[in-house]
Amino acid sequence: MNFRLLLQTRVPILILCLWIHEGWSQDKSSKSPENPYYIVYNIRNLDTVNDDWEIMRVNMDGTNQKNLTHNKDVAWTYYGYKDKIFFISDRDSAYRNFYLYQMDPDGKNIRKISDLRLEDSWMSSRKKGSEMVVSGRIGKEIRFQLFLIDIQTGTYKQLTNDTGAYFRDPCFSKDGKKIVFSHKKNKRDRNETEELFMMNADGSGLMQLTHYPKDNISYKDYGYKAGAARWHPTENFISYISRQDGRHGIYAVTPDGKKQWKLYPSENAAGWHDWSPDGKWLAFNSSDPEENQFEIQLMSWKTKELKQLTNSEFKIQMAPIFVKK
Q: With a threshold of 0.85, does the pTM exceed it?
């Protein structure tokens, strides 16, 4: 057989087989049981003049970082439900006038959900992702109040109505019957620390959960005293951010408020975080104590094995959430 003819017929077939195998391997890896979620997080772009914030996505092994938004806006994600990413953005309004949006894990099918203007705040959902609790505002007087939003229609209902106080970072309990949130009774009192409170989903039964230690060296520091609470999916505690002993850390409290403890001891600062839906993984942003460089970390809740998912390309990388592939 002619050698040149042999090469002409077999080489293309070989290349095609390799291409198919490579694509199959990548697809298999991305959908493997060990890598079922994307980690989605916020970065501040290098274009600091325009205050450009983008939403990034990365695999659980730190591979394939991808910018999902590519928009000259301020866009922050604070919640994921199954394969949907929910984020706030000022893309269709004035600077930092935030509204709620939704997109797919590849950054497509972006849609504005509601005309309710939102505060910069974490959020949560219940009823299979059909209803969301947010911190929103109406005009100049009604600010940092809790609202329920129907995800399909965009209609909303106000839950709290205390304009002298603020309510932010709401999170539903696993059964959707209670909401935990960060709260100050007098938002103008600089000596009052924010604390975690809990109430029934109809707004009744307000109860304080945390009590910040007034003798702590960080009592007068700028930063969270108790905020961005996340309900653990399988265990009986609520995690939250608190600046204590000179740095931000991740703390926990039981739903009855009887037990509080530092969840993740570390010499570095740890802050915004999220639990995987199965409760097996904790993603959080970590930094040096002075908070000069932020990175995204992933920890196995069972083994406490830690993996850094980001590099130092961007100074600010924070607020990770889990999204199903």
A: yes
